[in-house]
Amino acid sequence: MTKTVLITGANKSIGYETARQLGALGYRIWLGARDARRGETAAQALRDLGHDVSVIDVAVDDGASVKAAAERVMAQDGKLDVLIANAGISGAFADPTEQSIDDIRQVYDVNVFGAIRLIQAFVPLLKAAGKATIVNVSSELGSLGSLSDPDGEFYGVNILGYNSSKTALNAVTVSFAKALAPFGIRVNSADPGYTATDFNGHRGHRTVEQAAGIIVQLATSEDAALTGSFLCDRRTLPW
Fold first, then answer.
1. Segment 19-22 long-range contacts (CB within 8 Å, at least 24 positions apart)
2. In the chain, where are the structural domains located?
3. For 67-109, what is each residue's pLDDT tens digit?
4. pLDDT, tens digit (0-9, with 9 covering 90-100), for 164-205
5. Has domain 4-236 been given CATH number 3.30.360.10?
6. Active site amino acids
């Protein structure tokens, strides 16, 4: 039976490349996008490559949108093998002493609460699939170990809203990994690395092809023990 995957924020960058790579492996793709037009453009490009892709409107900061997406997948497929919480925003690159609470709240609503909404809504479909997988797209900027290491690559990147939202997302990963283990559902955090995307003005040194690699690796792994982990490529990151 064909495996299914839903990827949020998949109309561009890392999300799109993840869809492309999983499509090439034979997965049926639910391409999540909050802009239907952009989603359809991306989906058609993947269909032109021979992939089985359907666009699904989903804005993770909107509970009704997430619920409707889950209902659509349930009605059409009745299950979901892989859920990838990729949608995220950076918020303001401001001095932590000046970043507004409203801006931080918006970042959390997408990066943290959005992932929680998504997972909770899709748990019945993941249970129906059996041995399903959730991948939360995080960042090493959420690693307290890395950020507190004066010799670390990201020590000087002090972005209050974004960094702390990814730290919180990692805690979400651990919590759901424990809660869903009895159902054979694995939950992991993936760090794509410093990738050239809109987030950083395309200054990152990694390509989207490289970045998607760890997400695809976690999405397709058959290792039942691989859950509650935080990985970049084949390296385990400190929480």
1. 19/46, 19/51, 19/53, 20/46, 20/49, 20/51, 20/212, 21/209, 21/212, 21/213, 21/216, 22/82, 22/216, 22/219, 22/220
2. 4-236
3. 999 999 999 999 999 999 999 999 999 999 999 999 999 999 9
4. 999 999 999 999 999 999 999 999 999 998 765 666 665 655
5. no
6. 162
